[in-house]
Amino acid sequence: MTRPPASAADQEQPPGAPFAPTPVAAVYEVRTLRTDAEREEAAALVQDSQRWLALRGLPVPEQADIPGLLRDPMTKPAGLFEDGRLLACLVPERDTGLSWGEGPCLFLGYVHTLPDQRDDITRLITLWASDFAASLGLPHVRAEVTTHLGYPMESRADLCLRLINCGWTLIGSGRARDGNQGVRLELPAEHRAGLHALISCQVHLPEPISPDRSSR
Q1: pTM: predicted TM-score of the whole model, two decimal places
Q2: CA-CA distances (angstroms) from residue 164 to 29, 89, 211?
Q3: Cβ-based neighbour number of residue 38 at 10 Å
Q4: Are the beta carbons of 83 and 150 closer than 8 angstroms?
Q5: Residue 141 belongs to what H/E stretch?
Q6: pLDDT digit string (tens) for 40-90?
């Protein structure tokens, strides 16, 4: 019997070497928004989210120009993408001294998601943030969620319950960095083996938050 000639791949594979499958690209990606077009897309997402709130008679945060903040390249916003589609945007920062938390943390500011999307987006951000904080050597992730008194009680309760179910802990309430009343949330950092197969991360190392931007 004549043996067929070996393929180029077979010839390059050393004898006895383990088979190495081609890596599969992650379904989701969190990356720093580097171009004007990406930052403009994030600003548009926030405006869509604010419009969604207004159409339902819910108050829209007014103290901070969030679309303008996201357009600023110095802010280094990040986005969660699925096949190139922006699902959420946020500003990740390294914070060494929140007034309401002990010790350093990864702080997630100005988190917005596409309106009328499944709750999986919140869970994906939670998984990524917990793993990213651990990779930076930070023990916690912290965030603030605006809870105006004008929000229906059911909406506030549902939001808090969803976050708790994702692993967040409610620390208390107070004035958030955007000037609005909010709840304070904390999540433990945790290395999550294999998460890179689901969510790839290309986020710049967050810089410490300057004192003039800290909570009062």
Answers
A1: 0.78
A2: 24, 21, 29
A3: 19
A4: no
A5: strand 140-146
A6: 999 999 988 888 777 766 656 665 788 898 999 888 999 999 999 999 999
